Amino acid sequence: MWKIATLVWIVLGATLAGCGLMVVVSVPSLNDQGMKLIPYAAAAGFIVAIPLSVWVASKMTTITGRGT
Fold first, then answer.
1. 47 belongs to a structural domain
2. Domain assignment present for 66
3. Using N-to-C axis directions, what is the helix angle for 34-64 and 2-26, rounded to 10°?
4. pLDDT at 1
5. Tens-place pLDDT, residues 15-57
6. Which residues contact 24 (CB under 8 A, 6 or more apart)?
7. 8 domain residue, yes or no
8. Helix (H, G, I), strand (E, B) or coil at 4
9. Which structural domain, as residue segments, surrounds residue 37?
10. Cα(32)–Cα(23) distance, rounded to whole angstroms?
């Protein structure tokens, strides 16, 4: 399950980090402080993706019948 969770985390973390970056860039009040907020938004996306990827991987392994 952890191999699947790692693969899901890579994809999901990049997606959530990109969404956070888009929020920082598209909101004018946040865009003024973009150089400070972009690293935080990217890190938050990857950190939030960790429990989500474990959850998705556990659901994938139970559905396919390869539960550990």
1. yes
2. no
3. 150
4. 86
5. 999 999 999 999 999 889 989 999 999 999 999 999 999 999 9
6. 30, 31, 34, 37, 38, 41
7. yes
8. helix
9. 2-61
10. 12
